[in-house]
Amino acid sequence: MLEKYGLKANDAILAEEKHMGLYEDLIQNHNAKLIAGGAAQNTARGAQYILPPNSVLYIGCVGKDKYADILQEACNKAGLRTEYRIDESQPTGRCGVIITGHERSLCTHLAASNEYKLDHLKQPHIWSLVEKAKVYYVGGYHLTVCVPAILALAEEAAEKNKTFMLSLSAPFIPQFFKDQLDSVIPYTDYVLGNEAEALSYSESHGWGITDIQEIAKKMATLPKKNTKRPRIVIITQGTEPTISAIASADGLDEVRLTSVHAISKDEINDTNGAGDAFAGGFCAGVVEGKTVAESIDMGHWLAGLSIRELGPS
């Protein structure tokens, strides 16, 4: 399958024309399972799993089709409130996942998820919910969609001293959406990523740094709009310890390594969505006022649950 569609074993890419047959191929010929996904939506479901009922709202864009119904049903089951923009001209976004051993290859067709608009966010009944929120989390994939919507949330957070979190999402984001990413980074109180995304960030910014701890430290000290809060950069490294770098307006305060709970290989079912689950657990910790170390531990715990299941369950 990887060779047929020109995919790599452990990668995340956006679908091109040559990949369009992948989705039906998986369903028709490989008994693929349909599981609700959506990166930031996975994170939202994960956070809601831990937090009290009605704690989390997810905003995005879907088509008017069976895939949107699957998403809505999964969110309802998780107790996650959604406010979708419905775009009838595009199908709901899909991500084809090919698992080889413990590796996963992701091929995403954004479709309707690429059609989110600022005017949807600014509707009074939705913006009033934004104003009530204390923590904002944006997936890096949205940098390919609607940067003005991200900046609207970011500015709201900075002006009112609320928490703004951004996930780097995939190595191609710093590579190909550098300007969009750079416009949002100054607003970030938390930046989450993995080692591949951190390396991509360093490379795209010409830092010449390959040591992940050093990259995290440098990211933490980048210019920041809201200096009342520190910037905290969290970089996961698979089974290796998670790096956290914390910097206030005065400079770097702390770098810490937090060990990952060991899971035996025979317990691992699917690593797809593990990063989203980590972010969900971490976000829940932040919302609950936990320390950075405690929040990382919650992220590790939820990611550990996720990889024992199929997909971002």
Automatic annotation (TrEMBL):
Domain of life per record: Eukaryota
One annotated GO biological process: purine nucleobase metabolic process
Keywords: ATP-binding, Kinase, Magnesium, Nucleotide-binding, Purine salvage, Transferase
Cellular compartments per GO CC: cytosol; nucleus
EC identifiers of the protein: 2.7.1.20
Pathway entry: Purine metabolism; AMP biosynthesis via salvage pathway; AMP from adenosine: step 1/1
GO molecular function: adenosine kinase activity; ATP binding
InterPro entries: Adenokinase, PfkB_dom, Ribokinase-like
Top-tier EC class: transferase
Cofactor(s) annotated in UniProt: Mg(2+)
Transmembrane segments: none
Annotated Gene3D superfamilies: 3.30.1110.10, 3.40.1190.20
Signal peptide positions (record): none
Catalytic activity: adenosine + ATP = AMP + ADP + H(+)
Active-site residues, Swiss-Prot/TrEMBL: 276 (proton acceptor)
Carbohydrate kinase PfkB domain location: 2-312
Function: ATP dependent phosphorylation of adenosine and other related nucleoside analogs to monophosphate derivatives.
Sequence similarity: Belongs to the carbohydrate kinase PfkB family.
Protein name according to UniProt: Adenosine kinase
Organism listed in the record: Emergomyces africanus
